[in-house]
Fold Vesicle transport v-snare protein vti1.
Amino acid sequence: MDTSPTSLFDSYEQDFEQIVASIRDKLDADSPTQPGEQRKAALRRVEMELDEADEMVAQMEIELQGMPQSIKPPYVQRAKSCKSTLASLKSRARSLHAAAQRASLLSSASDTAGSPFRDSSDELGDGAGARNGDRTRLLKGTQVLEDGSRRLVDAQRVALETEEQGADILTDLRRQREQIENSRNTLQTADSAIDRASGTLKRMIRRMYQQRVVIALIIAVLLILIGVILWEKLS
């Protein structure tokens, strides 16, 4: 297992590149001729992958905080490049999403202003009836546009709420990561203190044995001196 300070950054960057490639494939495959529901489903998948790519960028920024300053600058540039790429893809996805919404609204308006209104206009022979039919179609079209605008506002609100929830989750993850790093630093400090205490105890034991040897030598010398003195007196 690679334990270098840049291994996680490289892993997140690889995941980001894979997600970006998938997003580009879906965006390049987008076409106004696609069925409405199929096109919307593809754009929803693009939005989900954009959220994943955004999370990868956030993780890369977290990894940058723990890198040594000597190797950090090139990785900062790589993270900025990823953010720029993500911003471009988000802008493109928003444009395609707006185009899809407009196409859906125009299709709904066309369906609403279809044959029933043309039939009623044909049945009316005078100009007033035609004007009433036009007014009715305009009112129906305006109502459809208002409904579409409300749906767009609701979709934007949901997107903002989702983005806020994602930001809260990322904040919690950063906080938990900091707590884990602090715990790891505390454990490392405790290990260092235990190592120092173990070394101190070993030195104390060694000195105790040295003192015992010295005391034994002193006692032996005293016994020898006592024996010599007694031998001289007795002799």
Summary: The chain has two domains: 1-112, 114-203. The CA atoms of residues 16 and 124 lie 62 Å apart. The helical segments are 7-29, 36-65, 72-112, 115-123, 127-234. The chain is about 90% helix and 0% strand.
